[in-house]
Amino acid sequence: MPKKYSRPTATQIAERIKHIPDGIWRACPVCDAKFYFRRASSFNVCPECGYGFRLGAHDRAKMICDQFEEINGDLRTTQTYGQERYSQKIKQAEKNTHLGESVLTGIGKISQTKFALGIMDAHFIMGSLGSVTGEKITRLFEYATEHNLPVILFTASGGARMQEGIHSLMQMAKCSNAVKQHSNAGLLYITVLTDPTTGGVTASFAMQGDIILAEPHALIGFAGRRVIEQTIMQQPPADFQQAETLLQNGFVDAIVQRKDLKQTLHHLLKMHWEV
Amino acid sequence: MVKLSPFEIVKAARSTEKITTSDLIRNLVPDFFELHGDRGRLDDAAVIGGIGTLNGRPITIVGTQKGEDLAENINRHFGSAEPEGYRKILRLMKQAEKFHRPILALINTPGAYPDMNAEYHGQGSAIANCLLEEMQLQVPYLSIVIGEGGSGGALALACGNQVWMTEQSTYSVLSPEGYASIMWKDSSRVEEAAKALHLTPTELLNEQIIDRVIPEVRNAEDIHDLRKIIFAEFQKLEQLSATELVEQRYRRFRKY
């Protein structure tokens, strides 16, 4: 006869909990749905609302490209403005992301269609816009202009790199310059705004695409919610600065589910490109 | 002259004693004719723009304007422009280009206006368009920070062939208060932040962020001197062809 059920003791429960691996259940930061982790699928999205969780740049490259070759991968921030903590932060970020800076740049291919690709990574000092981030993006556009290639840029950024002060601000001007030269050559620039795209990145190259796409529910804005709350004393609603709101207000061309991105980008590239 | 500390310069840059953008413009070009509106939604009072003659030469002037009292400051958002303000700036700059007029941009702003409507109306997009188009303007373009030069909101007017600052002005990626709160979670460490930001004209000149430091404008004589150096700079820039001007601006900003 089966043993009669008896309530486990607190010690037994603690012991059992120890053996449950972490990350089995996940929560969506947008719709608050709780789900078994496998339901996020290989695209790493919320199964309920389609929100795309933050991706590493290398994972994104694999998701989008059939082939990808990095360029300017050895560029590193060397000038740390006399801040020991900043150089430690960079080292830590390099270790965590396997990136040299907050953007990965290179040449990608979907099927036979070739393009210049930049992917910002929010895991690298919040995807902030450092001098080397700006330099890599500028060089990507210069390369694309020289080789007659379209550019696709995935943005993810908390804004300026505070540690670099005014030099960070100057990157907005520098990158805009390179975008304009690329545009003048009649070449296509597509931006994909991912969660979060804010501050100086929004106020420059993120919003300069010929076509601006966004992932579902991505946070996109210039001023941070806290700044608005504290300086102007307004209480923004929940959907404030969400991709869907920007679409409605006319600042985004389309919202594309992550699983459809590769195909959508390929389609758009082909319509601008005779192979 | 007594050497001011970075934080003293911050205070001087924000001082209400300082000449306002509109007074400076009206003294510099007495025949100034103001042009309003972004041709889309509204006229942003934080931005003044128009045309006037400098030593007989028609030029376009745009600038951010703080108020002289509380009521005016509420109307002008303390010189913080909304997206419509940036669209007005760009409209007037493109107009200057069409009529081959040099552009003078005067900057005194804590930053772009951070409210909900500004976000709904595309603050990021409006500034991004300024940066994109201003880089390629085919006319001489001179930017002068005359008070606070705060963040992207200032940069939208600071894409000139030359960028100058007056002695008691600042130019930074964000305010010392914001910096202290983000870096140290302590907004009271403003003095320290002002130092860490390297926001004074002398430091920025050393770091080649700006090209020249000019005296503060306090009286008619200062105005006369300022008119002279601005005119001389435009004359120098007008020696360059349209392509050379764009090329010079490209190189100026490529080096960062």
TrEMBL record, chain B:
Pathway linked to the protein: Lipid metabolism; malonyl-CoA biosynthesis; malonyl-CoA from acetyl-CoA: step 1/1
Keywords of this entry: ATP-binding, Fatty acid biosynthesis, Fatty acid metabolism, Lipid biosynthesis, Lipid metabolism, Nucleotide-binding, Transferase
Ranges of residues in domain CoA carboxyltransferase C-terminal: 1-236
InterPro entries referenced in this protein's UniProt entry, alphabetically: Acetyl_CoA_COase_a_su, ClpP/crotonase-like_dom_sf, COA_CT_C
Biological processes per GO annotation: fatty acid biosynthetic process; malonyl-CoA biosynthetic process
Pfam families: ACCA
Database matches in Gene3D superfamilies: 2-enoyl-CoA Hydratase, Chain A, domain 1 (3.90.226.10)
Cellular compartments per GO CC: acetyl-CoA carboxylase complex
SUPFAM superfamilies to which the protein is assigned, alphabetical: ClpP/crotonase
Record field: catalytic activity: N(6)-carboxybiotinyl-L-lysyl-[protein] + acetyl-CoA = N(6)-biotinyl-L-lysyl-[protein] + malonyl-CoA
Record EC number: 2.1.3.15
GO molecular function (one): acetyl-CoA carboxylase activity
UniProt protein name: acetyl-CoA carboxytransferase
Lineage of origin: Bacteria, Bacillati, Bacillota, Bacilli, Lactobacillales
